[in-house]
Write a structure and sequence with these properties.
Length: 91
């Protein structure tokens, strides 16, 4: 249950941050662009971001993808650490 909860938090923070930052640049991605972005991120996670060539629309905003990804993991792992400390204190 914890894995599911933190996965939901991670994805919520990631997509929220990603679309917020894209919106600041005046970019509203289409469904096709979202799909290509999702495929790119999936391959980058599996093979390494430097090993995967980014599609044309993503090249311009790859820093936004990376920053949103890192930010979401920081939040999720921070919350996991907090839960662990609370669990330790209760024990």
């Amino acid at each position: 249950m914890g894995i599911t909860l933190f996965s939901v938090i991670l994805l919520h923070v990631y997509f929220g941050r990603l679309y917020e930052r894209l919106g600041e640049r005046g970019i509203t991605p289409t469904q096709g662009e979202i799909w290509r972005g999702w495929e790119f991120v999936l391959r980058a996670e599996q093979e390494g971001i430097r090993q995967v060539s980014a599609p044309p629309g993503i090249r311009e905003v790859i820093g936004v993808f990376e920053a949103a990804h890192v930010y979401a993991f920081q939040i999720a792992f921070g919350l996991m650490g907090l839960v662990t400390l609370v669990d330790a204190a209760v024990c």
